[in-house]
Amino acid sequence: MNLLLEDVKEMWTEFSKGGKGKKRGTSINKDRYVSKMFLRGDSVILVVSNPAALASGASS
């Protein structure tokens, strides 16, 4: 199923290549905002409607 999404926050983790010192092999969390996105169904892994709303609703 293809998706047409609005107001999307995309989050992913990148792993740095080996280097010298403390920066060696660390993971970096990245994110970006996309106002409108067409997403092909075969590339969908996980869809969460609004993580902030789910977290605030669970505490009440």
UniProtKB/TrEMBL annotation:
GO terms for biological process: mRNA processing; RNA splicing. Its main location: cytoplasm. The keyword Nucleus applies. Keywords: Cytoplasm, mRNA processing, mRNA splicing, Nucleus, Ribonucleoprotein. GO terms for cellular component: cytosol; nucleus; ribonucleoprotein complex. It is found in: Cytoplasm, Cytosol; Nucleus. Residues 1-48 form the Sm domain. It holds the Pfam family LSM. InterPro entries: LSM_dom_sf (IPR010920), Sm_D2 (IPR027248), Sm_dom_euk/arc (IPR001163). PANTHER family: SMALL NUCLEAR RIBONUCLEOPROTEIN SM D2 (PTHR12777). Belongs to the snRNP core protein family. This is Small nuclear ribonucleoprotein Sm D2. The lineage of its organism: Eukaryota, Sar, Stramenopiles, Ochrophyta, Bacillariophyta.
